[in-house]
Structures are given as structure tokens and as C-alpha cells.
Amino acid sequence: MNYLHMEQKIQRTFIRDEVYEILLDWIVTGTLRADQQIRDKEISKQLGVSRTPIREALLRLENEGFVQTKANSSTFVTPINYDEISHYYSIAYTLEKLAVEDMFTKITNQHLKKMEIVNQEMYHSIQKGEYFTAVKKDTEFHALFISLSSNSELKKMLANLKQKLKRIELFYYDKAKGVHLSFSEHKKIIAAFKQNDMNLTLDSVEQNWRNGMERIQKYLIEKGDM
Questions:
Q1: Ranges for the HTH gntR-type domain (predicted)?
Q2: pLDDT value at residue 6
Q3: For all residues of the chain together, what is the average pLDDT?
Q4: Rounded to 5 degrees, what are φ and ψ at 76?
Q5: Integer Cα distance of 88 and 30 in angstroms
Q6: 8-18 residue pLDDT tens
Q7: What are the tens digits of pLDDT across the range 116-175?
Q8: Residue 48: left (phi > 0), alpha (psi -120 to 50), or beta?
Q9: 175: alpha, beta or left, given left = phi > 0 and alpha = psi -120 to 50?
């Protein structure tokens, strides 16, 4: 089985990290589907590397919950756990609010202008049905102010968690109703920053995450998965 429609060879020095990034991207974007078996021999041939860095990358992905090894030593993509969605989102907005508290005095009009541009780009992507781009723009919007935090460990935790959230959002973005409302919620975050009101900003950030979670949960309830 080819995991990509085009050849992709590893060229960078840190092969293990490169393999990890590629496999993570395949899982998050759905190239590797939930419950799909991952065969290191096939990936080795596909990427042009030995099986050792692939196994090391898979071990890292297993520790992060993206893959799981079953009793027969076969490795599979971990399915999305519907029950954990609320856990992921509550952790995300809690960490993001900590980042806001740390960076609040560092944001400038230039940052806010960029946030407005990215938010508008996200909205246009949603309107055109380009959901992959919309999710990327949503992530970029939040990254614009999170990156101003000086707490590197906090940013690492958020980055890992948001990979799991990105996988969920890519799967549901074109199904859940009201995703366009993120545009208005982002505008409220920008307005709160402009008013220099930290409490309002924190509330707006949390509400954006809560609403996103509720939109997905509503879809799952209607579908009968919750």
C-alpha cells in the first residue's frame, strides 16, 4: 500500500524526527485512517529509510496516544475517542488562558491586525468549503497570540494537544453545524484584546473553545455516537 500518491524521501539529518513529523501529519490529516494498520516495512520503502527510525517514531506516537500496539505486536492508528473530546477541549482552553495571562501585555496593534487578516481568511475558506485550510487558519489565529508567551513548556503542551484537536476538527469540520460562528468568536477575542481587558479576553478564549466542543458534541448526539 502506498501511503502517499507521490514519492517522499527523507533528506534531513534527524531522520527519526522527520519520520515522526510525516507519520503524525498522515494521522492528523486522515491519510492514515483510524484503526488502519501501520506496516513499518512498507513505510520504510516509501520513505527510503531503515525501519529503525520508523519504529522509534512509532514509539513516540504511541506515547502521545496517536497509535497503539496490539497483542500480536501490530501497530494501528488510534481511533478518535468521542468521550475524550470534552477533556481535550477543557485542557486546551485552560492552557491557552494561562498563555494569555503570560503574554497579555506583549500584544501589539500589528499582532491584532494580523489576527484580523487570518480570521477573515478562515471565514472565506469556510464559505468556499475549503475545510482543511479553514482548520489551518483557525490554528494560526490562536498561534499568533500564544507565540507571544514566554512559557516554552506551556507552548509545547499546547502544540501536542492541538495535534489531537486538529485531527478531530478535520474529521468533523464539514459535518458539524455552525463552524462559521468561530469567525464571530474570534472577533470577540480581538475586541477584548483591543479593550485591554484581560478578564474579557480570557472569557472570550474559553467561550470559543467551549462553543467548538459543543458544536462537535451536538453533531455526535444527532448522529447517535454519544
A1: 13-80
A2: 45
A3: 89
A4: -130, 155
A5: 19
A6: 555 555 888 99
A7: 999 999 999 999 988 889 999 999 999 999 999 999 999 999 998 988 888 888 877 777
A8: left
A9: alpha
Give the CATH number, domain containing residue 202: 1.20.120.530
CA separation for the pair 214, 177 (Å, rounded): 10
Residues 86 and 83: their CA atoms lie apart, in Å, by: 7
What does pTM read for this prediction? 0.80
Instruction: State the number of CA atoms in the 13 A half-sphere of 171 facing the CB.
Output: 23
pLDDT in tens, 63-93: 988 999 987 779 999 988 878 889 999 999 9
Residues 123 and 205 in one domain: yes
- Which residue in the block uniquely carries the three cell numbers 502506498? 2
Nearest Cα residue to 142 out of 200, 199, 86, 186: 186
For residue 45, pLDDT over 70 is answered with: yes
Same domain flag for 119 and 218:
yes
How many folded domains does the chain comprise? 2
Judgement on whether residues 58 and 121 belong to the same structural domain of the protein: no
CATH code at position 30:
1.10.10.10
Containing domain of residue 25, as a range? 15-77
**Numbers of helices and strands, H then E, in the chain:** 9, 3
Phi-psi region at 148: left, alpha or beta (left = phi > 0; alpha = psi -120 to 50): alpha
